[in-house]
Amino acid sequence: MKTKNKILTLLAGILILVSCEKDYLTTSDNSTPVDPSVPISFSAAIVPIFTASCLGSGCHIAGGPPPILTADKAYEQITQLGYVDADTPDTIPANSSLYKRMVDIAKPMPPAGKLPASKIKLLELWIQQGAKNN
Questions:
Q1: What would the DSSP string read from start to end of 58-118?
Q2: 88-118: per-residue pLDDT in tens?
Q3: With CB atoms 3.0 to 4.6 Å apart as the test, which of 23, 77, 117, 128 could cross-link to 67 if both were Cys?
């Protein structure tokens, strides 16, 4: 009977430990938390996501499928092709086809797998802040 109680106590402890989780918004997987009230910079925060995840896979480069997400063309491409609305900014990420594709369960972008939550959150905040070219 004592062994059974020890096992149950151990299992309860393990369940408590694995259920503890903190969700921090970070600019990368191992950096300091981001303050959502501070403007998200397209060039400093969003372009690096495209560079690492979209260009690094060889997909959204010149000659590849649209949008072209090179640093010099990304903003123009995602706004002119309707992936985000910069003229009359819609600050609801779920209305952005760019955001929808990045969180899509069946066909996420990039195709190799969904981006880390911290990068998706940066994109979400950038859209909520008006999707500015800053």
A1: T-SSTTSSSSP-STTTHHHHHHHTTSS-TTTT---GGG-HHHHHHH-SSS-SSTT-PPPHH
A2: 767 899 999 999 999 998 888 888 888 899 9
A3: 77
Can you read off the two tokens belonging to residue 119?
């990068």
| Structure confidence at residue 34 (pLDDT) | 67
CB 102 within 8 A of CB 114: yes
Distance CA 46, CA 75 (A): 10
In contact, 19 and 103? CB cutoff 8 Å = no
32-53 mean pLDDT: 88
Segments making up each domain of the chain, as ranges:
22-128
- Encoded tokens for 64: 């590849």
Q: Give the distance from CA 126 to its chain's centroid.
A: 10
- Of the pLDDT bands very low, low, confident and very high (cuts 50, 70, 90), residue 132 is very high
Measured in Å, how far apart are the chain's first and last C-alpha atoms? 66
